[in-house]
Amino acid sequence: MKLVSSRNDKVYDMRVCRATQFVLAAFLVLATLTPVYAQGFGDARRYNGYIDAEPLLIVIPDSRDCALAYNAESDDWDKVEFSTPLPGEGSPVAIGGDVAVFVHEGVAYGYSVETSRWASIKLDDPKTPGIPVIGGKLAAVIHGDFVYGFGAKHGVWAKAKLSSGSKAKPIIGSTLIKVIDGNVMLVFGEASKRFSGVDLTNGEMVKLR
Q: CA-CA distance, 148 to 37, in Å (whole number)?
């Protein structure tokens, strides 16, 4: 006897197929996400003086006049010292699998797991707080009329001037940072040492300041 599938069976099979595709897509997205942590250095006391985000470990001593980073992949320590102690509250630190970034006393600090070293850059207006954002192997800080970028590959900071009074925000993916400032798109990739820019109206490269 020949069996003939009904229309309802076909609709059901199509729904099952779509549901399976959705589950697989969600799994692939989740599998590629990098864990990101954000907390204040004031929280370090509740965590016995350290912030753990393997393979990175950040230690804050009781003196709070320095921060030490341990890289489990290279079995290496690096230390950054401050002229004034870290406050007991605030000073949010953003930590991903390959970078850690925070701002203290008008200076942005970034640690790269790939270089096992801290790097710093002085912000344009040290009196205005800067809040770091992070994604994958990259971090960004929008501060005043400047955007600052940090990447794990080279472990160096870069900055670019925005238009006066710009409200642009960094968009961070797994491999690049985008900032759309009016008609200009600024880009900082995971292999970058500096920002580059393109005019969205005519496709010309923009000379950045």
A: 20
Contacts 24+ apart (CB under 8 A), 28-31: none
DSSP class per residue in 38-68: EEEGGGGGGGTTEEEETTEEEE--TT-SEEE
Sequence ranges of the domains in the chain? 36-206
Q: For residue 18, report the phi and psi dihedrals to the nearest 5 degrees.
A: -65, -40
Tens of pLDDT along 87-137?
876 567 888 879 999 999 889 999 999 999 999 999 987 667 778 889 889
Residue 83 to residue 66: CA distance in whole angstroms: 9
pLDDT in tens, 123-135: 987 667 778 889 8
CA-CA-CA-CA dihedral for 40, 42, 43, 47, to nearest 10: 130
Read off the amino acid at residue 144.
G
Amino acid, res. 68: L
**How far is 48 from 170, CA to CA, in rounded Å?**
33
Which amino acid, one-letter code, is at 31?
A
